[in-house]
Amino acid sequence: MPEVVSSEPPGFRDAPRPEKPASAAAAKSTLPADPKKAASTADTGLPLRAGEVLEYSANVSELNNVASLRLQVAGRGNFLGKSTWHLQAFAHTQNPLRMVFELDDQFDSYSDAATMASLQYEMHLNERGQKVESIQRMTATGKEPASPGAVQARVLPGTRDPLGLMQYLRNVDWTKTPEVRGPVYDGHKLYDVRARLGPASEKVIVPAGSYAASKIGIRVFDAGVEMKDASFTLYVAKDAARTPVLLEAIMPFATARVELLKAK
What we know:
By secondary structure, the protein is mostly beta strands.
């Protein structure tokens, strides 16, 4: 199914490309004299790659390839005065499940480049012919302006959405930080999510290949109580890109295994 190309929200603009200096002397002249000032103005964004596309196949319970999932980094720009990554996900059910449950969903996340905190989260859902459009501007104060068509969602400071959380976890330096936690908003409800690195590296075999991967256990808490019927395990390849190669999910209605098909 073709994906719907949604327009960028008002106020989002692509980050300008750095201009090349005309000469080595010009390049030297652009450097600040004070090294402390240089550190303060350095780009602290997470090392994502604009244009990256990851394609996955989802197996649910005993059924294989029931859905396809595509994650992509659409680009980087400025939104609400902040350096921002535009992240996208597309989900489609496949036959034979599609004959009984037709699903074509698109999710858009505008996340702070340094922390992956969500600035705006969009859900464009088309399930069994029923379409739902949800554009939510994240706010911890209620003072952030909402763009046309968007509503304000009150969240805790530093809240991430599911797409921002995925990108954040793959870029954590797990050798220095064995556990991270923080609020996550899924478009409906705010949860406390805790992620911890497993004790050892594991070999993971998926359609895209064989990988040595870090195993990250993800636990979800609702109002301080751990959800026993909802947990996730993320496997991140130990390569330069830190590619998420496998996600295992335990949910109230089924278990799922989402495997990497290919990366671009």
